[in-house]
Amino acid sequence: MHSANDSATFWENHYAGTDAQWGTKPNVVLTDLLADLSPEPGTALDLGCGHGGDALWLAAQGWQVTAVDVSRTALDRVDAGAAATGVADRVRTERHDLAATFPRGTYTLVTATYFHTPVTIPRERVLRRAAEAVAPGGLLVVIEHASVAPWSWQAGQDIRFPTPAEVIASLELTGDWHVERGEAPQRTATGPGGRTAMVTDNIVAVRRAG
Prior knowledge:
Largest sheet: 8 strands, mixed
Number of helices: 6
Strand content: 25-35%
Structural class: alpha/beta
Shape: globular
Radius of gyration: 16 Å
Distance between the termini: 40 Å
């Protein structure tokens, strides 16, 4: 594992060596979820946005999006994608090492989609901070790996993933929240080179009372 101090270097090198078109499509789990739970656009915070697939899709649906990543290369590509698709006025990028700093304000929607890293970070603390950034009536969505795909950097490791209930408990939610989703479905995923595999996701969606 890398140390927290390596986070910016690791992800900058990762994206600099990654096809700029990889990760520019939205996560279908997220798009399906929001069609049911948050169909009206508002303000959104996308944590670990990468190349911006989710952020650009949200902006295209009318959301005002703050897209956050530690990699400047990734954020520059999000800016370019927003300009190319005509949503630059609805996407703001901010560079944060979330182990150290966090965007200001509250949001109708906060997403952490596959917020995994081989770099050592206080992940649970970051997700608790994400919950604090949800506005009254708003939604926190955490979509994460609950199994290891053959192409993952974790392939071959013996890993116990938390259950959705354990993820929710780790958020240490205070006040009035409603669990909208807490499930671990399977799906067929496509990895680099078009390789496919059956994987499991944790899908957690919790709403703060309005």
